[in-house]
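Deviation from plan, reported transparently: flavin mononucleotide complex.
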Amino acid sequence: MDLSVTIGRTTVQNPVGVASGTFGYGSEYEQLIDIDSIGALYTKAVTCTPRPGNEIPRIVETTAGLLNSIGLANVGQERFVTEKFPSLRQRACAVFVNVAGDVEDDYVRTVEYLEEHAPLSGYELNVSCPNVKAGGLAIGTNPQLVEQVTARVRAATDRPVIVKLTPNVTDPAEIARAAETAGADAISCMNTLVGMAIDVEQLKAVLPGKTGGLSGPAVRPIGVALAYRVSRAVGIPLIGIGGIDGPDAALQYLLAGAVAVQVGTANFVDPTVTRKTIDGIHAFMQEHNLHRVSDIASLLR
Ligand SMILES: Cc1cc2nc3c(=O)[nH]c(=O)nc-3n(C[C@H](O)[C@H](O)[C@H](O)COP(=O)(O)O)c2cc1C
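Because the crystal trials were delayed, the predicted structure below was used instead.
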């Protein structure tokens, strides 16, 4: 049985990764789980310059989920290279750097800088951030902007480029096709959904920025439906994300057409959830006498 999955020129040892922003840069979880046994680590977003992030509170618990408004807090690309890269390069698992920015040029600058100073397995482009030039519209909501940024990043690296979709659009499949046209190696889907919680006693939004990104089991059926739709719209692999908290949820995504998955919010509840998910997928493949992870999708009736 072969649990490995290929994304661009990188082969990951199993289909279960940890989602950006929920696993830091790995070291935060070192005492809790054997990080080298996971399929892939997607780092916290890295931007050209350091970002302090948004006002607190940045996270609020909701029914079966979390609302977050972190504001891409991160140390910036230079400190990423000096402080985070040395331990990340030692990892036996694949490491994809999640790259974010205000404008297209920011993504290109960061990828070029990391190519030179911190080459890892590849890049995941977080195109859900507000784009300053496009009047605050997220790049990921516009197929043309996605195509442009993907093409420019593609030209800057031979490593795998994964474009991470936002679900906050009418047709994510159209955005995925734009990324594919521009040369993306894979699509990861999905980022958080816009949500809001109001404190009824204090008569104000719980998050200082009013709205935040909803994640966790509450969003899973939306993510599974997107994996089903988007995987049929493109020829490149789809990595499923959204509310995965164990083998059953991960298998729903793999049956829907994803070739791999990422576990996000569930890491906060149980840091060993990734290991349990890998073991559960392995057991499922054994039970159904499957040889490759991609065989799982063919079981869907
Ligand atoms: C606290 C927190 C921080 C996040 N930070 C990032 C980030 O920096 N870049 C990114 O692309 N996605 C980020 N995400 C989105 C997750 O990677 C993931 O796409 C989303 O949470 C859905 O998966 P889940 O339901 O398993 O958490 C963040 C999510 C959470 C909860």
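The longest strand covers residues 94-99. We consider this an acceptable substitute for the interim report.
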